[in-house]
Write a structure and sequence with these properties.
single chain; alpha/beta; Spore Coat Polysaccharide Biosynthesis Protein SpsA, Chain A
């Protein structure tokens, strides 16, 4: 049983060595532990520092491609190097690597496909207010709309079984954390969370350049993936909401009509008709998107079988 710890990293020369050295190299149930650093076009000495600190594999992008692409490439490389189990962590020393044993236990015992190390966000005193409550809101919205367990969806400290890693095929261009869980839930993977308090990180985030931009981009990723993986729920919910507004307007018109004052409210009836037609069309789109989703599932299954054969020992 080989465990590969993947570390997507961008300009982390100050922290990457501490992360690598803290990773336990001997764990119960694991024959070999290796470390793979995916350097995302860093402009500093991240790659060299990682090699000197003992990383088994250091792979570099020629330019900065973003966290989602870096994570996806790291997973692919780990599978290529024969990983039976993958733990992903960050290069900023945010997570306690000594807790990896706790993180992988549910996967080793076949209780889960993906295990998330919850950061206990409420206990992180130095996390900026907007970051803290933005994370909480993102977790709430994602879990509710995507129908996944209540977990810390933004945590990057995760353990993946080989099967889970093989089934991941991310198309996100910003952050992978939400998209990976939405896809995992769609594939009926078992997702668990264990509490592993994160360390405080005082330096500016590499991912979040500014809060409004991050909220906009992360929100777009969440909504896009919900419409891709949960199209019937998303379109039907939106359609029913719009239809309900139209129905309320109809009831309002009928109230005035039977009160003898309907002549001046005919425009309300027109608006209601438009809203109800739009709502019905959204519901129809949900049906069509759901049918298209079956084709996506077939393609994903073909991709899974192809990768399984490609990374076969």
């Amino acid at each position: 049983m080989k465990l590969i710890v993947t570390i997507p990293a961008y300009n982390e020369e100050e922290n990457i060595a501490a992360v690598i050295k803290e990773i336990p190299r001997e764990l119960p149930g694991i024959d070999k532990v290796e470390v793979l650093v995916l350097n995302d076009g860093s402009r500093d000495k991240t790659a060299q520092v990682a090699k000197n600190a003992g990383a088994d594999y250091v792979i570099s992008h020629r330019s900065n491609l973003g966290l989602a692409k870096t994570f996806s490439d790291a997973i692919s490389e780990a599978l290529k190097f024969g990983a039976d189990l993958i733990v992903n962590t960050d290069g900023d020393n945010h997570y306690d690597q000594s807790k990896i044993n706790e993180l992988i236990k549910p996967v080793l015992s076949n209780e889960a496909d993906i295990v998330i190390g919850s950061r206990k966000i409420g206990e992180l005193e130095k996390m900026p207010f907007l970051n803290k409550y933005g994370n909480k809101l993102g977790s709430y919205v994602t879990t509710k709309l995507a129908g996944i367990p209540k977990v810390d969806v933004s945590s990057g400290f995760r353990a993946y079984s080989k099967e889970a890693a093989l089934r991941l095929s991310l198309m996100s261009n910003h952050t992978y954390t939400h998209a990976a869980l939405i896809q995992a839930a769609d594939s009926r993977m078992v997702i668990l969370e264990i509490p592993i308090k994160a360390r405080e990180v005082t330096r500016k985030s590499r991912l979040i350049k500014n809060i409004p931009d991050h909220i906009m981009r992360a929100g777009t990723v969440i909504l896009r993936n919900i419409f891709i993986y949960k199209p019937l729920r998303a379109f039907l919910s939106l359609g029913l909401l719009i239809f309900a507004v139209g129905l309320i307007v109809v009831i309002r018109f009928l109230y005035f009509y039977f009160s003898g004052d309907g002549d001046g409210h005919i425009q309300s009836l027109i608006l209601a008709g438009v809203l109800m037609i739009i709502g019905f069309n959204f519901a129809t789109l949900g049906m069509i998107a759901s049918a298209i989703g079956w084709n996506r599932k077939i393609i994903e299954e073909v991709l899974y079988r192809t990768k399984k054969q490609e990374y076969k020992k």
